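Note to self: user wants both folds in one dump. Writing first protein now.
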Amino acid sequence: MVLTVKNICLETTDQGFLVNSADWNQEIGKRLAELNNIPLTDAHWEIILFIRHYYQQFKHLPNARVFTKAIAKELGEEKGNSRYLHKLFPDGPLKYACKLAGLPKPPTCL
């Protein structure tokens, strides 16, 4: 599949994840959010940028439990809990944070 952002065509998987995470920028993140009906706020960007940094640092994606714990450690307990994350990404915090961040689909997500 192809995603077009500002006349640039980007290859995506059949589930809408970018094939090449190096192609990502915030404009692409905004377009992916629109396509997934997620109105972005600063709180969303904080989590999106967090997971991009995590992936760059550790070269892998965490499972949902490790993701939540890592957020709690870095951003505080009020943000590192499933209730907060599900308010931002109701259909799956890890899956949609990764998708909007231009990262691969986490192996633990359906």
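First done. Writing the second protein, which came from a different request thread.
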Amino acid sequence: MNIFRRPDYRSDATQFIDELKARNPQLDAEQVKGRALLWDKVVDRLALRGYERARVAQKPYVYQTKH
């Protein structure tokens, strides 16, 4: 054992999250389900390619109305 070793620091936020997960064991599964609902989507590559080709180049200064 090293005499200079300090005890491991745990922030208040980390302690709160650990306590929350200990009280609600289903929380991890609910997070995965929520992520799948909002973020894990199948991307239509053909449509995405069409959107990229249809993009119009932006002017250098978008607020300028005259040439």
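Dump finished. Worth passing along: The longest helix spans residues 12-23.
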